Amino acid sequence: MPRRWRAVIRWSSPHEGRRLLEQIREVGHPLVVLTGGDPIKRPDICDFIAYGDQIGLRMTITPLGTPLMTPAVIDRLKAAGLVRMAVSLDGSTAAIHDAFRQVHGSFDWSVNMLRYARRIGLSTQVNTTVTRCNFDDFDRLCALMVDLGIDLWSVFFLVVTGRGRPEDEIDAAQHELVFAKMYELSKRAPFDIKSTVAPPYRRFVLQQQVAERRANGGHGPRPRAIGFALKGGLARAPKSVNDGNGFVFISHLGEVFPSGFLPISAGNVRCTPLSAIYRDSELFRRLRDYAQLKGKCGVCEFREVCGGSRARAYGVMGDYLESDPYCAYVPPRYAKLVARGEAESPPEYFQRRMDAFLDDERRGQD
Ligand SMILES: C[S@@+](CC[C@H](N)C(=O)[O-])C[C@H]1O[C@@H](n2cnc3c(N)ncnc32)[C@H](O)[C@@H]1O
Asked: What is the pLDDT of residue 15?
């Protein structure tokens, strides 16, 4: 296991839940994210957090913004040993966020939870999912994050899976625009910013750092894979965290997935130890072997720090080793192949594969 990794759990019975926490602890010291749905609906949630904390895990939670999350509940979570609470905010105003979530009141409940957690000294994180619906709201979201005084802003990029629809995804150029805004904010914000299901943000940050150093005559901070900082004892993800690489998602039935957005199970913790699934399953091994990546991801010089979104490749083309379809960067090696007529241009490449995938899906439905 990498030194720092994450396990995301939707769990089953109290006994199995505790055994699972022990399995996780046996293989490392990861950040554990209790998620859902709404994990707060679990009646023994505080006991579960306390047990994880007692055995040396860093327990975090992503509850929904609802009236269930009263100050008293947040007090209890903190007392149990919770180290961070992450709340989703998908719009800068109640109108935008509530329309996105289709729940009236969600924005106010979410903001109040964050403000209360901050008041009692509980570390907070906001998760925002960027789609076409809130793309134009991103500047105002940046301002809101500063106002909320959070510790980490995790910017998710929609993946076509579950209820994520292709028509809601932003395109590759829009990804770059959001990356630019995130990077600019990261230089002045008092909190960390990371991308989720968009590893090309790491490539973007490196490119900016190199350009800034060059413009400064080679002076200034050396480019790093990404500016991971330690805040409140919670390290940010290691530089190459990606689906199945420093990250596992465990469902309430014990199925182990490379991420919450890549719905292929590599095994079940009820029959196989988590460590064995993570280390030895063919799926996880292939996902970590970036030499197997296809298309322009396969020849990209940023491959080892990025690796492209495996979930997005799977969602859009049905192949988790495919090139990331929403990365705008064209590696020079790939451009040379195209110029020599040895590879298709990126638009042709992706279009052909997406069409083939859709045809396959249609045939499967017939
Ligand atoms: C596991 S969810 C946390 C669940 C939590 N109960 C909530 O929705 O706030 C973490 C984040 O993933 C985001 N998310 C859900 N489906 C997604 C998808 N298909 N692509 C990208 N992000 C997604 C959610 O908006 C949420 O902010």
From this structure: 87
